[in-house]
Design goal:
Layout (H helix, E strand, L loop, with lengths): L1 E8 L6 E9 L8 E5 L7 H18 L7 E4 L4 H4 L2 E2 L2 E2 L34 H13 L4 E8 L1 E2 L2 E5 L7 H6 L4 E5 L7 H10 L3 H4 L5 E9 L5 H17 L17 E4 L3 E5 L4 E5 L6 E2 L4 E6 L8 E5 L4 E6 L4 E2 L4 E7 L14
Parallel strand pairs: 3-4, 3-7, 7-11, 9-10, 10-12
Antiparallel strand pairs: 1-2, 2-4, 5-6, 8-18, 9-11, 13-20, 14-16, 14-19, 15-18, 16-17, 18-20
Organism: Mesorhizobium denitrificans
Protein name: Peptidase M14
InterPro entries: AstE_AspA_cat (IPR055438), N-alpha-Ac-DABA_deacetylase (IPR053138)
Length: 350
């Protein structure tokens, strides 16, 4: 294994940011993989999953069982990881530009483009994004490990890679897969798949390519047992896709989770501000018109509560971990069987 440390110059004198990169070169001839975590600095389930995965990779390297190069970035955003306000970690948006760290990635037009020219960007968050694209480009498997607030485990997958990625969803024990295409705000997964959309079939290799944003449940789901479980899923994927040789790993059962186009995801929003009383949790199935949340907007008043009802039947995928909402706040994601009447192009959330 080779370790390097990437340095990202800050926007003011004397400030810079660093993050480690680990590379297992392998013996050659196999597919390659790139894994990164904590692009939103406070999302840690992927970080501890990678920590649990690393001993497996070191053992495979010592035994000569790694076929293709594996690049690991356990904590991809030192900028967001350092952003605290009044004691709370604020790792989703860059304080300086107010831009989501998983938006506005540089989009290459071809896999042959050299991403290094992107590194001369005007702000530190743009330089970080350009560097991550440069590190990941050319890998057959690209996984960006995130988490939601409170959530099932699920994947965002480019539609062009489905159903080829069913084995990945099964290997990682995912509960659901959300399929998307088009523009998603130039998120990292879009930057990873876009260069191949216009490439010849023999270069695109959609039947062998893996690109996904991985949502490892919720922010608080950080413990040793879950980390080991997720690490074993990642390792199983690498074995099944031929990056690592390991005869002891049994093939996964077929994927039986929910698969849905992103258009069917209902972003249920708060019609007013108040305290949230949830009546459902991730994994629950609901009927149209069922009570999802009660908002206590005027405590003590006879008419001080407002019920939010399900716009259609479906599966509760996520909900907020905080219990205070502002008007228009996202309360939960409900995956239905028909397109949402409020769906809009692009990413589901800012």
């Amino acid at each position: 294994m080779r370790k390097t440390v990437e340095q990202i110059a800050g926007d003011t004198q004397g400030i810079s940011f660093a993050f480690p990169v680990y590379v297992f070169e392998g013996k050659g001839g196999g597919p390659t993989a790139y894994l990164q975590a904590a692009l939103h600095g406070g999302e840690l389930p992927g970080v501890v999953a990678i920590d649990a995965l690393m001993p497996m990779l070191r053992k495979a390297e010592l035994q000569g069982r790694i076929r293709g190069k594996i690049t690991i970035v356990p904590s991809a955003n030192p900028i967001g990881r350092a952003q605290y306000a009044a004691g709370d970690l604020m790792g989703r948006f860059h304080f300086g530009t107010q831009t989501n760290f998983n938006r506005d990635f540089p989009l290459l037009s071809s896999p042959d483009d050299n991403p290094e020219y992107l590194l001369d960007q005007s702000t530190v968050d743009q330089r970080l994004k350009a560097r991550l694209v440069a590190l990941s480009m050319g890998h057959d498997i690209v996984l960006d490990l995130h988490c939601d607030d409170e959530s099932l485990a699920y994947l965002y997958v480019p539609t062009v890679l489905w159903p080829f990625m069913q084995d990945c969803a099964a290997a990682m024990n995912m509960d659901a897969v959300i399929l998307w295409d088009g523009d998603c705000g130039a998120a990292f997964d879009q930057a990873s798949i876009d260069p191949y959309l216009g490439a010849p079939t023999e270069r695109a290799r959609f039947d062998r390519r893996v690109v996904s944003t991985v949502e490892y449940r919720g922010l608080a789901d950080v413990d040793a047992a879950l980390a080991q479980h997720d690490a074993e899923g990642l390792y199983r994927l690498l074995v099944m896709r031929g990056v690592i040789e390991d005869a002891a790993v049994a093939p996964s059962k077929p994927f039986r989770g929910l698969t849905s186009p992103i258009e069917n995801v209902e972003m249920v929003r708060a019609p007013c501000a108040g305290a949230l009383l949830y009546h459902v949790k991730p994994g629950d199935r609901v009927e149209e018109g069922q009570k999802l949340v009660t908002i206590v907007h005027s405590p003590g008043e006879v008419d001080g509560r407002l019920d939010v009802l399900a716009p259609q039947a479906g599966l509760i995928l996520t909900r907020r971990n905080r219990r205070a909402a502002y008007s228009g706040d996202d309360l939960l994601k409900l995956v239905g069987s028909r397109p949402s009447a409020t769906h809009r192009p692009g990413a589901l959330e800012d």
